[in-house]
Amino acid sequence: MSKQEQLQEIFRDVLDNALLVLTPELAPANCGDWDSVAMVQIVLAVESAFGVRFSTDEVADIKSAADIFKKIDA
Amino acid sequence: MKYFSKITASHYVLPSKVLTNDDLAERFDPKKVKSIAKLSGITQRRVAPEGMTASDLAVAAAQRMIESENIDRASIDMVVFVTQTPDYILPATAFIVHEKLGLSKDCGAFDLSMGCPAMPYALSVVNGLIASGQCKKVLLIFSETITRLVYPKDRSLVTLHGDGAAAFILEAADGDYGFEFADIHSDSSGWKHLLVPAGGMKQRISEETKKETTDESGICTTPESLQMNGAAVFHFSISEIPPAVKASLQKHSLSLDDCKLVLFHQANKMMVDSIYNALQVPQEKRFFFMEQIGNLSAASTPVLLAEALRQGKLDGGGRVLLASFGVGLTWGVFSLNFAPGSVKASQASTELD
Fold first, then answer.
1. Where are the domains of chain A?
2. Domains of chain B as residue ranges with CATH
């Protein structure tokens, strides 16, 4: 499974939407279910799945899925 | 371990006025209220009515404790008042409390400005006052009207916070019981994640500071109100607290088996559950007191401890391991070892109209 697909599965699971198509543009601003609760759940799942660690500032600065893509591709 | 101070009396007070989730569902999208309620575990919160301040809550808690436990108020030689919602910018609210309680001219008073992580800091300070011999009997009060700093249209914080006060008497320890340690840490790079931008010297109150802004997630606030990056603070809490607790236990050669209770700042239930689960704290050592009252900021951990004492959970003695965390960002792991029957936990009313 590619990183993109893995990340999509995380978003589908946390946002409870099996049909969600993950794009870098997906953001709390355009996805009503992506609130602060979901943000933490997504971050924790990404940390676990990809072996990365977000700093508090990085979590605070996440504006869209693009920021998460950037972290796992770093 | 060396013991210099111990808690000998306790009480807490909450405003009687209640704000329920049903009330909030009339103000906000019911789906969002339900989502936050699921995260926080909070079904209602206590809210100080207009005119009730942190000093009112503090005086009520202290007065009832002093009267019910027959404490000689003339022997109190310091009042330490912990809050981030003082009655005035100055003087310190401790002086208002000192006056209303009729304390001695030989009793000093000062405020300690700290929010959710306050308790380990405050206990450290009071422990030092007693250990040095400067003070014999300290009245330590934690009190907040944090709901005053929450913008009424900010659904992320209105749903979480409540008001309240807890009062303790601390005196010199005798024997192997009392305040044991407080291991305190800070990540000051996160100071902006929990902030009231206006009202201090950096940005004075003006017409500008009353203007509403709404962010991309629909959170509405003003510079005069508490602003929190919820995800960042949540992530910080569940990332830092479990390893900090483990480190403190190791540092002080303790284990969870040595603890009667493990108590955490009552930020929200999902967060506290996550921390308990990460540490594998047995169910019988967990204790919650937030569902009916909300997150009380600086008063949260103190009211939690006061309620545990009030319920008699430490009548037989035992060690309580605690952790408080939040604004700063800062966190502290601390421990209190209670002798059997050593605390006069007042059974006076906890309600304030």
1. 3-73
2. 1-345 (3.40.47.10)
CB contact under 8 A, A57 and B189: yes
Which chain A residue has the Cα nearest residue B40? A37
Distance from CA of A1 to the nearest CA of B (A): 27
What is the C-alpha separation between B64 and B12, in angstroms, rounded? 9
Query: Of A35, A54, A56, which is closest to B217 when you measure between CB atoms?
Result: A35
Q: What is the pLDDT of residue B160?
A: 93
Q: Which of A17, A54, A39 is nearest to B230 (CA)?
A: A39
CA distance A3 to chain B (A): 22
- From the CA of A17, how many Å to the nearest CA of chain B? 16
Q: Angle CA(B160)–CA(B230)–CA(B197) in degrees, nearest 5?
A: 90
Q: Do B235 and A56 touch (CB under 8 A)?
A: yes
Q: Which residues of B touch A39 (CB under 8 A)?
A: 230-231
Q: How far is CA B172 from the centre of its chain?
A: 23
pLDDT in tens, B20-76: 999 999 999 888 888 788 888 999 999 999 999 999 999 999 999 999 999 999 999
Pick one of 1.20.82.10, 3.40.50.360, 1.10.1200.10, 3.30.1330.60 as the CATH number of A3-73.
1.10.1200.10
pLDDT in tens, B320-333: 999 999 999 999 99
H helices present in A1-74, as ranges: 3-14, 36-50, 56-60, 65-73
Check CB contact under 8 Å for A40 and B217.
Answer: no
The model's pTM: 0.94
For chain B, give percent helix, strand, coil, nearest 5.
35, 25, 35
ipTM reported for the complex, 2 dp: 0.83
Q: What is the mean pLDDT of residues B94-104?
A: 98
Q: Which residues of B are catalytic?
A: 116, 265, 295
- Interchain pair A35, B232: CB under 8 A: no
